[in-house]
Design goal:
The complex is a heterodimer of chains A (50) and B (664).
Chain A (H helix, E strand, L loop, with lengths): L1 H26 L23
Chain B lengths: L1 E6 L5 H9 L16 E4 L12 E4 L11 H13 L3 E7 L3 H12 L5 E6 L4 H4 L1 E3 L1 H8 L3 E3 L8 H11 L18 H22 E3 L8 H9 L5 H43 L5 H19 L2 H17 L1 H15 L7 H6 L4 H6 L7 H10 L9 H11 L3 H26 L21 H35 L16 H12 L8 H9 L6 H10 L16 H8 L3 H13 L4 H11 L2 H31 L6 H33 L1
Parallel strand pairs in B: 1-3, 1-4, 4-5, 5-7
Antiparallel strand pairs in B: 2-3, 6-8
Helix pairs in contact in B: 3-7, 9-10, 9-11, 9-17, 10-18, 10-21, 11-18, 15-25, 16-17, 16-23, 18-21, 19-20, 20-21, 23-25, 24-25, 25-26
Classes of the chains: A mainly alpha (50), B mainly alpha (664).
Chain lengths: 50, 664
């Protein structure tokens, strides 16, 4: 039983970490998570986070 | 305090920016790499003030009267945001052209420090510049630097601090161009050039003969030759794919896959036999197995990007743009469209963003629509997987997909040209060819690790989440019961993907597993590999025993139930249908037209389907003597697509004729 709870918690933790990273990148204006050259805002120069 | 870096395209602004901030922004040995402003803090080793100094890298511009959107970024920033100091980067090999822009910056009243970049090459090129006299004539400090090696940077920053808060002399005062008519602008331009020419004659000495052929010229005669250019490019790309996917890449991949396998076994041992099979399978097969299958291709991608970065840095890719201009011009595009396409081989998103350097709206939108056809980093694992499983020679598959993408782009541009009823491109493509140079291993390594980081982050986020979702949907039925062994077709995943699989029968891959992988690929293309690993229960696509790309290739192919021809069709479908959602978002931002966006995405779907259909049916006919399954419905569907294009093209032609009559 305990091993199931731990395994479930590990899976939830992994998924939550992945989701958090995606949300943070989205807030930073990264269109493609992880890609350092894919930040884009408006066509003008006021790109958020750049 | 803010310092703006400004200068002509390809003068080395981003190289200087990286050198003084410690950042690793993408640099390229050709104009137009930077299309948006970038910011960073001055390195502590150069900053003696103790204050926070912000450095802003601006896109290249030839003048403060902008022609393209990225030029207007520079113009707007220096005029409206009033940085404390402007570092004007001047390419010493092109002093006349660079100083034209300098004289405009000096009129703004903001302190300017001129950085004479690439000064280490002056002796080699037989150029001598009297920088002391130049500083006197311009009325601002002038520092000789070499951003690439770091020469002169402390002195440059010292001059920047000294200039802060002071005014700026103006050696040439032009007319106020706001509201000025064309004739006045022309007069101002001529007078400014005359001033710059006089100045350059005074401070620059050159030892050259105009009819003397350099080694650079001799190389260009071969590499950019009308007939030899394309075969040389094909050979170079073949070599790149050979090294990355058949030799060096798998050599490194072996170590990584071995490590992933050990990690899988370690976690399996930790879980033991008491853990729930559903949880165990989700963690081992869904998360570790799915992500591991994608990660196994990381070394192949790293080697590929390392080699592509070397090519770009050497100046070769600028020649490719010149070679391709000849063909693209005929279909309404220009060599300028090649730059986004080359950038798109890393990731389609910055590639699409780079289209903003194209002035003509139709060309820009067409390029944004066609750039995602290039095989980006996310598509490479898919190519490597299918090349390894179904074809013994991995390198030709990658190379042919690369050139297939170029052919589709040319065909696509031709179709758009007909639909929009435009003639051949009227604008000329003028590209200042950068000198060939020994590519920097350091910069190539930075590019490689930057791409690797992106790949790992994607694998650990979007790919992981998708694989977990796919695994869950495969584990449960619609009534949330665990799927019985052998009853996988009752799973949620099979239920969702089966209708799509039906549509793919004419393309040779009517299995729901393959349909599920193709659908997951629209979220991120690496998902095709991850989903196939999850649905077929394969955790290792790369051999750990031998340096063969894919382990048990025959077994994997048998499990998928595909012929080689159907596999090629499946690969083409995944490469040439719309890119991931994020790239579609970038297309939306650059096209600035919902009509163009939807037309573009529909076109990409139609193109991917048609190419896969033709590849499967023609290939099956050639290999077996008869057509494959679903040829009639497929033919009807493809004919309808072709009919729509013909009708749109005719309507456009009719409209043009009516407009012409109306005008007459």
């Amino acid at each position: 039983m305990l091993v199931n709870v731990i395994t479930f918690a590990v899976i939830v933790l992994i998924i939550a970490a992945a989701c958090t990273k995606l949300v943070i990148d989205k807030k930073k204006g990264r269109a493609c998570s992880g890609c350092p050259h894919s930040r884009h805002g408006n066509k003008g120069f006021n790109c958020p986070g750049q | 305090m803010r310092i703006a870096l400004s200068g002509n395209p390809n003068s080395g602004k981003t190289t200087l920016f990286n050198a003084i901030t410690g950042k690793i922004e993408h640099v390229g040995n050709w104009p137009g790499v930077t299309v948006a402003k970038k910011e960073g803090d001055l390195k502590k080793s150069l900053n003696q003030s103790g204050k926070k100094i912000r450095v802003v890298d601006l896109p290249g511009a030839y003048s403060l009267t902008p022609f393209t959107s990225e030029e207007s970024i520079t113009s707007d920033f220096v005029k409206n945001e009033k940085p404390d100091v402007i570092i004007n980067i001047v390419d010493t090999a092109n002093l006349s052209r660079s100083l034209f822009f300098t004289t405009q910056l000096l009129e703004l009243g903001i302190p300017v420090v001129v950085a004479l970049n690439k000064s280490d090459l002056l002796g080699k090129k037989g150029i001598a510049i009297n920088s002391i006299e130049l500083a006197e004539k311009l009325g601002c400090p002038v520092v000789e630097i070499a951003a690439i090696s770091g020469k002169g940077l402390p002195e440059l920053i010292e001059k920047v601090f000294a200039a802060t808060g002071k005014g700026q002399l103006t050696p040439f005062r032009g007319i106020d161009l706001r509201g000025a008519d064309r004739a006045a602008v022309e007069i101002d331009t001529l007078e400014r050039f005359a001033f710059v020419d006089k100045l350059v004659r005074l401070i620059e000495g050159r030892e050259f003969s105009s009819h003397k052929q350099t080694r650079q010229d001799a190389a260009d005669r071969i590499v950019a030759n009308k007939y030899l250019g394309i075969p040389i490019f094909a050979a170079v790309i073949y070599l790149v794919f050979s090294i990355s996917q058949a030799y060096l890449g798998p050599l490194f991949a072996d170590f990584l896959v071995d490590w992933i396998d050990n990690f899988y076994e370690y976690v399996e041992g930790l879980l033991g036999a008491d853990v729930s099979p559903v949880l165990s399978s989700l963690l081992l097969d869904g998360i570790i197995g799915g992500v591991g299958a994608v990660m196994g291709f990381l070394p192949l991608i790293m080697v590929l990007f390392f080699l592509l970065a070397l090519l770009e840095d050497s100046g070769y890719m600028a020649r490719v743009a010149v070679v391709m201009d000849r063909y693209l011009k005929r279909v309404g595009l220009s060599g300028k469209s090649i730059i986004p396409m080359v950038i798109g081989t890393g990731c389609a998103i910055p590639g699409v963003m780079a289209t903003r350097t194209i002035r003509d709206a139709r060309q820009r939108r067409t390029t944004a629509m066609l750039t995602p056809f290039m095989p980006c980093g996310a598509k490479l694992p898919v190519i490597a997987l299918f090349a390894g499983v179904f074809f013994s020679d991995a390198a030709w598959v990658g190379t042919s997909m690369y050139f297939m993408a170029i052919l589709i782009i040319i065909l696509g541009a031709l179709i758009v040209q007909r639909i929009t009823n435009e003639g051949p491109a009227k604008s000329y493509f003028i590209l200042e060819l950068p000198d060939y140079r020994m590519p920097s291993f350091r910069r190539a390594l930075i590019t490689m690790f930057s791409r690797a980081q992106a790949f790992i982050v994607r694998a650990a986020t979007i790919i992981l989440l998708c694989n977990a979702a796919v695994h869950m949907m495969q584990t449960f039925t619609w009534s949330f019961q665990v799927v019985e062994p052998g009853m996988e077709h009752t799973s949620i995943l099979a239920g969702i993907s089966s209708p799509f699989a039906f549509l793919f029968i004419p393309l040779g891959f009517g299995a729901w597993q393959l349909a599920a992988a193709a659908i997951a690929g629209f979220i991120a293309k690496e998902n095709v590999v991850g989903t196939l690993a999850v649905v077929y229960g394969i955790t290792n696509f790369i051999d750990t025993e031998e340096f063969v790309l894919v382990s048990g290739a025959g077994d994997v192919a048998a499990v998928m139930g595909l012929t080689s021809v159907a596999a090629l069709a499946y690969l083409m479908f995944n490469l040439f249908t719309p890119p991931c959602f994020a790239a579609i978002g970038a297309m939306n931002a650059e096209m600035e037209s919902k009509k163009w966006l939807w037309a573009g995405v529909s076109f990409q779907f139609g193109m991917g389907y048609t190419v896969a259909f033709v590849a499967y049916q023609v290939g099956t006919l050639l290999t077996t003597g008869s057509f494959g399954a679903g040829v009639i419905p497929g033919l009807i569907f493809v004919s309808v697509l072709a009919g729509i294009i013909v009708v749109l093209a005719r309507n456009s032609e009719q409209r043009a004729k009516t407009d012409l009559k109306g005008a007459a």
